[in-house]
Amino acid sequence: MSATYTFMEFFAGGGMARLGLGTNWRCLLANDFDSQKCAAYRANFGGEELIEGPIEDLDASDLPRDRADLVWASFPCQDLSLAGARGGMAGARSGAFFSFWSHVERLVADGRRPSMIAIENVVGLLTSNGGRDFQTLIAMMAKAGFAVSALVVDAKHFTPQSRPRIFIFGFGDGTPEILHATPDESAFTPAALLAGVAALPAEARENWGWLAARPQTRKNMTLADILDWSAADWRPKAETARLVDMMSDKGRARLDALLRNKARRAGAAFRRTRMEDGAPVQRLEARFDGLAGCLRTPAGGSSRQIVLAVENGAVRSRLLSPREAARLMGLPDDYHLPASATAALKLCGDGVCVSVVRWITEAILEPALARARNKKAA
């Protein structure tokens, strides 16, 4: 069966956007500079369309001659994340957006404006540089002739991971019927997004519309459902006891209640340094709400999530495995991960949730493209 739509994927990583788009889409170009992610991309997709190297090194001859239905970009978040130094889009990593946008401008100038653009990043983009980074990005899209909208979507609606991300959409074939004049206030249009849109320059604001698409807000699975309970690397009891001793009184009380009830529950925990009585204290902060914390790039020990498995009145602990991290990102178990645990966890932590992309594809991308095609055919 031939694909209906075409796309280019910048900052492609291991191809998680590609997986989310599905078999109805054909890749024209993929690009990433990380050699291990590119190796995973090739292992899973063959990589014929993949160009490995910095995005700024791409030139006009690298861009496909066909007009793409979609250009997807999950550009680096390190300078935008609330957990980082927040250098903003002027930072060395997140500033790669401007190299990406230069390629979009080249396509527009050459008469190959993509029908749609999808940009994904952390919600910190909304407040980075006092909100000006978000406003700059939207203004650039509007200037290039795109109708623009955005949603904040949390992966928790699809997989057991707390992972809110902003998805910005540009529509290059006119303002689609799915855009509306007013938003409905919800977690999908948080206060920071409303404020960012209100502060847009007038010409950019004229190109803005609101999306009404919303995913189901119910849990389909919990962290316990994706864990390998029979894994061989659970820590010795003494090590687990030392971890539990690092919990605050409130956290320990929650764990003790689960142990007394002999509940079967999986918790996700991070080590954190907190100031208590004027002194730094390392704490283990755990959640037992069925969700893992947001996956991160494994830059250090504190960034690795710890699994706490409560069963039959006892608790076990170990690090979250790469395959479990992949499941939290919506990757199927037959997806080929890098052999190195660090590389696999980096691929997952830097990626976009496959299940979220699938919903976006079905609820926003394909309906908008189908309507645009029908209008042209009429």
* Fraction of residues in β-strands: 15-25%
What is the domain total for the residues?
2
Give me the count of strands: 13
CATH superfamily of the largest domain: Vaccinia Virus protein VP39
CATH class of the largest domain: Alpha Beta
CATH architecture of the largest domain: 3-Layer(aba) Sandwich
Radius of gyration: 22 Å
Helix content range: 25-40%
Characteristic terms for this protein:
globular, 378 residues, 7-stranded mixed sheet, 32% helix, alpha/beta, Rossmann fold, 4-stranded antiparallel sheet
SSE layout and pairings?
Blueprint: E1 5-10, H1 16-21, E2 25-32, H2 35-45, E3 50-52, E4 70-73, H3 96-109, E5 116-122, H4 132-143, E6 147-154, E7 164-171, E8 179-180, H5 191-198, H6 202-205, E9 210-211, H7 223-226, H8 237-245, H9 249-260, E10 265-276, E11 279-287, E12 306-311, E13 314-319, H10 322-328, H11 341-350, H12 354-377
Parallel strand pairs: 1-2, 1-4, 2-3, 4-5
Antiparallel strand pairs: 5-7, 6-7, 8-9, 10-11, 10-12, 12-13
Helix pairs in contact: 10-11
